[in-house]
């Protein structure tokens, strides 16, 4: 009797596991297209905050260059893409993903828009776990601090002044929180330096654009 009971229970558990797996698989198959579309729309909204629609006539989501995870200077932990905004064939700006690994509470995911003239079009913090009320002021919904990057370049200020005021730089730190803004400023500077060193690639016209899997 005991053996029969164990066998029956094992069979019921196996059946339950199979049904659960089928339900999970079915739910995924039914919703994956919707999830992918919503993710694409959210990504597009973030890009348009940095380079508004009126500045370009292409789909930035479909005009990209690959950025391998080991791309120098960007701190990426996985392969990402650089997005290009164009008017006609002319690239007017690019948007670069940057992962800041030395935030106070962990990684900070940024996108940095850089205009063709080398000035910053905009910066947004997409994901972070910084302390509410302190480090989370990098989020535009909490503070306009991030807007101070707009129009900045490698000439304004020069690289040695790209820091918080506590370190002799030009950017404000937060009251009671210096680590977060210090890390973000450094990450934005790295994005500017990356674009400057790859200008011939990222601002190329489509006809001239190389296969840059190992160049960007």
From TrEMBL:
The complex is composed of six subunits: RnfA, RnfB, RnfC, RnfD, RnfE and RnfG. It is a single-pass membrane protein. Pfam families: FMN_bind. NCBIfam families: PRK01908.1, rnfG. The gene is rnfG. Its cofactor is FMN. Part of a membrane-bound complex that couples electron transfer with translocation of ions across the membrane. It comes from Kineobactrum sediminis. It comes from the Bacteria. One of its GO terms (biological process) is electron transport chain. This is Ion-translocating oxidoreductase complex subunit G. The modification FMN phosphoryl threonine is found at residue 178. Keywords: Cell inner membrane, Cell membrane, Electron transport, Flavoprotein, FMN, Membrane, Phosphoprotein, Translocase, Transmembrane, Transmembrane helix, Transport. The chain crosses the membrane at residues 12-31. One of its GO terms (cellular component) is plasma membrane. Residues 103-195 form the FMN-binding domain. It is found in: Cell inner membrane. PANTHER family: ION-TRANSLOCATING OXIDOREDUCTASE COMPLEX SUBUNIT G (PTHR36118:SF1). Its main location: membrane.
């Amino acid at each position: 009797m005991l053996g029969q009971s164990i066998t029956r229970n094992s069979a019921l558990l196996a059946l339950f596991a199979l049904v659960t797996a089928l339900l999970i698989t079915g739910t995924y198959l039914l919703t994956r297209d919707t999830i992918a579309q919503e993710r694409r729309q959210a990504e597009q909204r973030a890009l348009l905050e940095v380079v508004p629609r009126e500045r370009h006539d292409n789909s930035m989501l479909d005009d990209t260059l690959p950025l391998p995870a080991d791309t120098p200077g960007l701190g990426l932990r996985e392969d990402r893409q650089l997005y290009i905004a164009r008017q006609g064939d002319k690239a007017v700006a690019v948007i670069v993903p940057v992962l800041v690994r030395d935030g106070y509470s962990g990684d900070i995911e940024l996108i940095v828009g850089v205009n063709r003239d080398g000035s910053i079009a905009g910066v947004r913090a997409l994901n972070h776990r910084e302390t509410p009320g302190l480090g989370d002021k990098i989020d535009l919904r909490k503070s306009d601090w991030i807007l101070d990057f707009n129009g900045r370049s490698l000439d304004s200020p020069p690289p040695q002044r790209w820091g918080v005021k506590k370190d002799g730089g030009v950017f404000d730190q937060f009251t009671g929180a210096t680590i977060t803004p210090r890390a973000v400023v450094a990450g934005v500077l790295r994005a500017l330096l990356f674009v400057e060193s790859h200008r011939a690639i990222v601002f190329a016209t489509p006809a001239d654009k190389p296969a840059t899997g190992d160049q960007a």
